[in-house]
Design goal:
Blueprint lengths: L8 H8 L3 E5 L2 E4 L12 E4 L5 E3 L5 E2 L1 H9 L3 H14 L7 H7 L12 E2 L8 H4 L5 H6 L3 E3 L4 E5 L5 E5 L3 E7 L5 E8 L8 E2 L14 H4 L4 E5 L2 H13 L5 E5 L16 H10 L4 E4 L5 H18 L2 E4 L13 H9 L2 E2 L3 H9 L4
Parallel strand pairs: 13-14, 13-15, 15-16
Antiparallel strand pairs: 1-2, 2-3, 3-4, 4-5, 6-7, 7-10, 8-9, 10-11, 11-12, 16-17
The structure holds zinc ion.
Length: 354
């Protein structure tokens, strides 16, 4: 990894208290030029490419040369300084050992009592109606909570309390090694107040990627939003026998960032996937305007932080992967637009298909 990985000129200014304005999302306008000292807001640096210039002395900057001019440090000292900035701005990707430590099994996770599909109970209608056969229920380890499915959570006051998962499909969430580290319960009765229920005191889904254990080592991945989108895409991949393509779920329309140095977030999981051979990530969220714009932003974040190729795919309007036929998923995948530069981003934004 390089000295500047994940670092933008904006992070650099924030860390150092350098005065700047943002005339647009990708542009950082800096008050004082560290080279000529002019303080009339003549330095403009692109926050995506980190390249820019002073309109007075004509110095061309990138984040590295800007930092060098700003600090006056030699090579060694500058490297340490940039590392400090990245650490402080929470941009350091944890080492392999830290990643492994953080992705450890959640020690006291005891799933609520549930019935195994195809063994204790027939594949439920709720799943069948979504095109999920017994084969896929088993592949995704889905289970049925029909009675006495209690999970004991620890409350914020430290006191234990019970959550009932009765009437829900239990969806185990695994880490990259296939160990269950969290779960969700999806109501199948249509009567529950909350469609999804989450245990508290367990790895939050927003720090995990659904189905990552099956995507491990694959060069290309589709990133869907929810669990049932992922299953639908997996069915499409299998049905059309698409090679070298896997699917994961992000549990939301943005990627979690680390809030603490030891915790891992979705970006770190993608980074580990990259280490194991991932080359391209294609984001495929719901077929609507805001989801598409969010996907562009998320793709940009992934590309900038870990340097893999990113793309955004558009499903038919108003549809999610669970509501289309496999051919629609494949078509959206083939026609996805790349998000690898400022130019790509602007182009993708201006050609939002919804
Ligand atoms: Zn200047």
């Amino acid at each position: 990894m390089g000295l500047l990985d994940g670092l933008t000129i904006k992070n650099y200014c924030d860390y150092n208290g350098i005065e700047y304005k943002q005339p647009s999302e990708n542009e950082v306008n800096i008050k004082v030029c560290p080279h000529c000292g002019n303080s009339k807001w003549k330095v403009y640096i692109n926050n995506y490419s980190n390249i820019g210039t002073c309109h007075v002395c004509k110095t061309v900057y990138n984040a590295y040369t800007f930092a060098r001019e700003f600090t006056g440090y030699d090579k060694g000292k500058l490297a340490a300084h940039l590392k400090d900035v990245r650490r402080e701005e929470k941009l350091l990707i944890p080492t392999y050992t830290d990643y492994r430590k953080a992705v450890r099994e959640y020690k006291n996770l005891r799933l609520p009592i549930a019935k195994s599909i195809g063994i204790d109970i027939a594949n439920p209608n709720y799943l069948k109606n979504r095109g999920i056969t017994e084969h896929y229920s088993k592949m995704f380890d889905l289970r049925v909570c029909d009675s006495n499915s209690i999970y004991v959570c620890k409350g914020s006051d430290g006191e234990p309390y019970e959550q009932s998962y009765d009437g829900r499909i239990l969806i185990p969430i695994k880490n990259i090694d296939g160990v269950i580290v969290s779960f969700q319960g999806r109501d199948y009765t249509g009567l529950a107040e909350k469609k999804y229920m989450f245990p508290s005191g367990v790895n939050s889904a927003s720090t995990l990627l659904y189905n990552i254990d099956k995507a491990k080592g694959c060069p290309n991945v589709i990133i869907n939003e929810g669990v049932f989108d992922v299953i639908a895409t997996q069915i499409a991949i299998d049905k059309l026998a698409i090679p070298d393509l896997a699917v994961v779920g992000s549990f939301g329309k943005h990627f979690s960032k680390r809030t603490d140095r030891l915790e891992v977030s979705q970006i770190e999981h993608l980074n580990e996937m990259k280490r194991l051979g991932l080359k391209t990530a294609t984001i495929m969220w719901d077929g609507e305007k805001d989801a598409y714009n969010d996907a562009i932003k998320a793709a940009e974040t992934i590309h900038r932080k870990i340097g893999i190729k990113t793309r955004v795919a558009a499903l038919p309007s108003g549809k999610d992967p669970n509501e289309v036929i496999p051919q629609d998923i494949w078509k959206a995948y083939l026609n996805a637009v790349k998000i690898d530069s400022t130019f790509d981003i602007l182009k993708a934004r201006s050609s939002n298909p919804y």
